[in-house]
Amino acid sequence: MQVWPSALLLGCIASMQTGAATGAPVADAAPDAGAAVYGKWCSDCHSTAGGPGSMALERKYHGSLPAILNRRSDLSPEYISQVVRHGVSFMPSFRKTEISDAELDRLGTYLTPRSLRNHRRPARATGGE
C-alpha cells in the first residue's frame, strides 16, 4: 500500500470542489448540468413554440410571458420544484426516482435568473395557528 503525499491528496480534494478544466466552483457548473436535465426531461414539451407545454403556456398567458420555459425570467426554484413534483394541468408530476432532488436543484438553477436565485421566499408557518 502506497501513502499519497499530502500535497497530491489536497490537490485532488481541491479539484473535486472546482470545475476540472476551468477552476470554476462547482456551483457555477450547475446551469450547464441543469441544461442537461432540461434537455432530457423538459425540452420535448417546452423548448419549441409547437411543443404541447409551450402551447399550453401560450394559451394561459396570452403572450404576456414567454411560452418557452428557458426564455422565462420569472421562475423561482421553489415554483419549478412544486410544478415538477406535483404537475399542473395536463403536465405530469415527476417522482424522485425519475428526477432526483439533486437534478431538480440543477434544473431550478438553470431556469431561474441569477437575480432571483438568492431571493427565496420565507417558508410558511404550518401548524396550530
Please identify the oligomeric state. Answer: single chain
Count up the helices. 7
Q: Distance N terminus to C terminus?
A: 61 Å
* Global Rg: 19 Å
How much strand? under 5%
Q: Report the top-level CATH class of the domain at 25-112.
A: Mainly Alpha
Q: Give the CA-based shape.
A: globular
Helix and strand run: HHHHHHH
How many strands appear in the DSSP assignment? 0
Stretches where pLDDT is under 50 for at least 5 consecutive residues are 1-27, 120-129
| CATH homologous superfamily grouping of the domain at 25-112 | Cytochrome c-like domain
In CATH terms, what is the architecture of the domain at 25-112?
Orthogonal Bundle
Describe the structure.
By secondary structure, the chain is an all-alpha fold. It has a domain at 25-112: Cytochrome Bc1 Complex, Chain D, domain 2 (Orthogonal Bundle). The protein has 7 helices and no strands. It has helices at residues 6-16, 26-41, 43-46, 52-61, 77-86, 101-111, 114-117. Helix 2 (26-41) packs across helix 6 and helix 5 packs across helix 6 (101-111). The longest helix has 16 residues, at 26-41. The chain is globular. The protein starts with 5 loop residues before the first helix and ends in a 12-residue tail after the last helix.
